[in-house]
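Fold Annotation — chain and its backbone
Encoding — discrete vocabulary of local shapes
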Amino acid sequence: MNDVICAFAAAGPGQRLEPFTYKPGALLPDEVEIAVEHCGICHSDLSMLDNEWGRSVYPLVAGHEVIGRIVALGAQVKSLEEGQRVGLGWYARSCMVCTQCLSGNYHLCHKAEATIVGRHGGFAERVRCHWAWAAPLPEVLEPAASGPLFCAGTTVFSPLMEFDVRPTDHVGVVGIGGLGHLALQFMRAWGCEVTAFTSHAGKAAEVNVFGAHHVVTSDDTVALDRLTGTFDFLLVTTNASLDWTRFLQVLAPRGRLHFVGAVLKPLDIPAFGLIGGQKEVSGSPLGRPITVAKMLEFAGRHTIAPQVEHFPMSRANEALDHLRSGKARYRIVLDADF
């Protein structure tokens, strides 16, 4: 095994990616090494590259929507095989011994390591992770398009399981982008009546294709007033700040306003808007490894896939510019061409 890994890295906040090599050291007994075939680009990659969250360590190799084949196994790894195609998302390791891990909540481990926080990610020819976070990819799913399922897909699927969303529920997706277009597909296949809230009225035709029964413009106050008290579950996938009081009003009693989009400004939530209808506001990261597996199974059964645009990894800067411009429809995947 070559002891040097080729990658593309940023040397500092907002800087262009440049060719970069590093020595990964000895493979740990509980790790696998994955030869990267495809890697999606998520908005979180941009946030890390620009150090928007104050967590970035440079040089930074981004990329946490990896599809590839296992090329090396640590001595303790028994459930995976060399040559097996797997996916890797935001998490690369959890401690496996804390209360959360022993309860199956590996994604809530206080020592969990993100694939691109203090580690080198998937904009590279190879990447490593703890074996539990390398999820076998079902053969029914197209490898070249499946990377975004391991971040965006898991992020929007997990709340359906965590909060007992029912097929009889009326649900809404706020923000139809990389996360939202997958959320519509999952919720439609889940059996729900689905409404898309978008700031772009021109997206209506596309949104219907993804599974929305209804489309509402996010700032249409008349339409929002008509919907007062009708939604059991609203999934917020946008990172924009909106009038959250109005969205609380469209929730039915015991309804939930749930955030998976990284809205950076504090939420302006009135207490009486929650108390009167016993409503809830919550948020979640990605899901457990078992949730990832269930999501992949469900996606395969219902032919759910992200809409992707492809760039060779050698043109990663061009792909990042395309994402920054807001023109991506709806996820970008880099194809390894080292």
